[in-house]
Write a structure and sequence with these properties.
With about 325 residues, this protein is mainly beta. It is about 5% helix and about 45% strand. The radius of gyration is 27 Å and the shape is extended.
């Protein structure tokens, strides 16, 4: 098809690995630098055409670069006790380098040169009016109304600044303990964006709404509840939930991804019963999460998607 071109990628990757003390400490560092052009995308169309998008090559020039670091170390090792530690870190970066005629494209209010493609141009929330109890926004053009796209002003980034995992293993005699901590530093959509129902309708709400505005003089960041779809409060809520920067907040978290404890029966029991090994174990996944996220789960960032399940399993493994 002469209307389409191949996507072009320019890739640079530099890596270094080294071990110390006979590889008891092993470190791997990787830097990647990728520039992509002619991405094949679904270019959005006006709905009057009857189609939401058309396949097209994007003229955008996009940079993806970052650092990936991995470390493994045996901190203590003797006849009775072994302690090993592992750590991985990733620092990603994304940037729109160029986009010819961006101002005349359908992405004029979506992308900006020199910023990540994960930005959102939104209304800037200025809190809840203590007199009326509704969300307020910065009126950029000073016309007394909040309108799209004239009052779009604030850029928020929906992306990970860094993420990684910390794992450790302890072995003492026939006992072994392993765990893995997952950590992510990021911003994301909170409950205000993911909940489609306006406050006041019959639907589940997070406990945060218990701090909502109730009477004149209340100072809070959650507006009043109402069941009147034509009220100023309902209009302010739709502005906030669809285009307000108060839908984006800190979604960083630390999660105990998994932990396991096991015990191997003594060798004399194995020999007596002609077994190779018997292991008694207990393990858990997603045991706890530490986060200030305003919503169900900082990883899924949705009220309609089930968060990672907490599971606890115990058992006995026989090897004959």
């Amino acid at each position: 098809n002469p209307n389409y071109k191949w996507e072009t990628n320019q890739k640079l990757d530099i890596a270094m690995e080294f071990g110390l003390a006979k590889d008891r400490l092993f470190v791997s560092v990787d830097y990647y630098h990728n520039i992509t052009t002619n991405q094949l995308i679904g270019y959005p169309l006006s709905y009057v055409t009857g189609f939401p998008s058309i396949k097209d090559n994007s003229p955008a020039k996009l940079l993806n670069e970052g650092w990936e670091i991995e470390t493994n170390g045996v901190l203590i090792k003797n006849d009775h006790f072994t302690w090993s530690l592992s750590l991985n870190l990733t620092f990603p970066k994304n940037e729109l380098l160029s986009y010819p005629n961006l101002a005349g494209s359908n992405y004029a209010n979506v992308y900006e040169i020199g910023k990540p493609i994960y930005i959102k141009k939104l209304f800037h929330g200025t809190g809840v009016d203590p007199k009326t109890g509704v969300y307020t926004f910065l009126d950029v053009n000073k016309d007394g109304q909040i309108t799209y796209p004239e009052d779009l002003t604030d850029y928020k980034t929906l992306a990970k600044n860094y993420f990684g995992g910390l794992g450790s293993s302890f072995q003492y005699g026939r006992w072994q303990l392993n765990f893995l901590l997952q950590f992510v530093q990021q911003t994301g959509y909170n409950y205000l964006y993911s909940d489609p129902a306006a406050p006041g309708t019959m639907t589940n709400q997070p406990t945060l709404v218990l701090n909502r505005w109730r009477q004149p003089g209340n100072i809070t960041n959650i507006q009043q509840f109402t069941q009147d779809p034509g009220s100023p409060a309902s209009q302010a809520w739709f502005n906030a939930s669809l285009l307000g920067d108060n839908t984006i907040s800190n979604a960083s978290f630390i999660r105990l991804k998994n932990i396991s404890l096991s015990y191997h029966l003594p060798q004399k029991w194995m020999d007596k019963n002609h077994w190779q090994d018997v292991r008694i174990y207990a393990q858990a996944q997603n045991l706890f999460t530490i986060s200030d996220y305003e919503g169900l789960d900082p990883e899924t960032q949705s009220t309609s998607v089930l968060p990672p399940l907490r599971t606890i399993v115990a058992g006995v493994q026989f090897i004959f």
